[in-house]
Write a structure and sequence with these properties.
By secondary structure, the chain is an alpha+beta fold. Helices cover 28% and strands 36% of the residues.
C-alpha cells in the first residue's frame, strides 16, 4: 500500500492512496491552518471505526440479521503533551434492526477484534481498546440490550 500527501498552501494538504480517492487534510486556525479538512489523527480514528464497521456489518449480513441502521462510534483519549498520542479508545457498535440476535452481534464484534480488522489488531498492541455495543429494535428509543464485548481468557482485543 502506498500513500502520499501533497502540500496545497499554508497548512492544507491533499492525501491519496492506491484507491485514487483524495482526502483534504487541514488544521485549526490557531496553528496556521484554514480549518479546511479533517486532521490526520481524526483520519486515524475514522480508519479504525471504518475497518471494524465493515467487518461487523458484513458478518451480520452473512448471518442474515435484519439490520436497518448501524454506526460505529470511537472515542479516543490522547496524551496532553506532544506528540499527543492516542492512549485509550472506546469503540461502540450501535445496531438497529428487527429481532437482531445479540449473540450474532457479539460474534461479529469478536471476529472483527480477533481476526479481521488490521487497524484494531495493530492499535490494540499500543493502547487499550474497550468494545461496547447497544442493540436497538426498530422504532424504539431505548436499547433492548447493551453491554461490552470481553474476550475469553487469552483472546484478542
Amino acid at each position: 500500500m502506498d500513500a502520499k500527501v501533497v502540500w496545497k498552501n499554508r497548512m492544507s494538504f491533499a492525501g491519496s492512496a492506491d484507491s485514487g480517492f483524495v482526502v483534504p487534510l487541514g488544521t485549526d486556525l490557531s496553528v496556521g491552518g484554514d480549518n479546511d479538512g479533517p486532521r490526520p489523527m481524526e483520519l486515524i480514528v475514522i480508519g479504525l471505526a471504518g475497518c471494524t464497521a465493515m467487518d461487523v456489518i458484513s458478518i451480520l449480513q452473512k448471518k442474515r440479521q435484519e439490520i436497518t441502521s448501524f454506526e460505529v462510534r470511537v472515542h479516543a483519549d490522547r496524551a496532553a503533551d506532544h506528540p499527543k498520542v492516542i492512549t485509550r479508545a472506546v469503540i461502540e457498535y450501535v445496531v438497529t434492526g428487527r429481532n437482531v440476535d445479540e449473540a450474532a452481534v457479539l460474534r461479529a464484534i469478536e471476529l472483527s477484534a480477533a481476526r479481521y480488522c488490521p487497524a484494531q489488531a495493530m492499535f490494540a498492541k499500543v493502547f487499550p481498546i474497550e468494545l461496547n455495543y447497544s442493540l436497538y429494535e426498530v422504532g424504539q428509543s431505548a436499547p433492548v440490550k447493551q453491554g461490552a464485548y470481553v474476550p475469553a481468557a487469552g483472546g484478542a482485543a
